[in-house]
Amino acid sequence: MSNNLSLPKLNVQQILIVEDDPINQQLFEMVFSKTSVAIYIVRNSQLALEYLKKNSPDFIILDIVLPDRNGRDLANIIRQIPGFATIPILAVSALATLENKELCLAAGMNGFMAKPFSIYELLNSINYLSEVDNRESAKAALKSMQNIPNWLKDDCLAKISTHRLLAELSMVH
Questions:
Q1: What H or E segment, with its residue span, contains residue 157?
Q2: Residue 55 pLDDT grade (very low, low, confident, very high; cuts 50, 70, 90)
Q3: 73 by DSSP, 3-state: which?
Q4: pLDDT band at 128; cut points 50, 70, 90
Q5: Does an H or E element contain 164, and which?
Q6: So what's the pLDDT on residue 137?
Q7: Dist. CA 46–CA 127, nearest whole Å
Q8: 90, β-bridge pairs
Q9: Residue 7's pLDDT is what?
Q10: Domains of the chain (ranges, CATH numbers)
């Protein structure tokens, strides 16, 4: 029996990743090196906007805490750029609270993922959010959680560990 796991095939070809932390950049590089998806990683919002002037990725992964601008503000700016009003944007943040998720969705992002995250959670979220019909469903699912106490939701969001991510990376072929 093999310990290797297979990754899901992604529905996108090119992803822009806006992430300032070098360790997280390396993790994204390791994850996507196991796929056929082309990624371009930038460390701040200015570089992201410069990239978008010349390129049209299929998907954007956006950190919320950036050195030059809040990721939510950047999402609002991206939504105003012709051709990017409907591009799927996945927020990633270590600030795993329901309030942060709600703010990200209100800013025009389609989904939210708490850091650290599972490889499979990331790739499945990309596939899910890249399907147009699913983008609004993700927002509706979050709204349905509003009756659950915040402490419980926040605790659930914080359960994924870095060790799980690294273990998955070592098992993927």
A1: helix 150-157
A2: very high
A3: helix
A4: confident
A5: helix 162-171
A6: 52
A7: 27
A8: 61, 111
A9: 79
A10: 14-171 (3.40.50.2300)
Q: 95: which 2 tokens? A: 């600030």
Runs of H (alpha helix) within 34-149: 45-54, 71-80, 98-106, 119-130, 132-144
Structure tokens at 81: 């750029």
How far from 80 is each of 46, 75, 103, 152, CA to CA, in Å?
Answer: 15, 9, 18, 35
Whole-prediction pTM value?
0.77
**Residue for token pair 């979220």:** 125
Q: Using the predicted structure, report yes or no on whether residue 163 has a pLDDT greater than 50.
A: no
How much is the pLDDT for 38? 97
Short-list 12, 17, 25, CA closest to 47 = 17
Pairwise CA distance, residues 104 & 89, whole Å: 10
Cβ neighbours of 35 (radius 10 Å): 18
| DSSP-derived secondary structure letter, 145 | G
Mean pLDDT of the chain: 81
**Torsion over CA: 120, 141, 93, 32 (sign):** positive
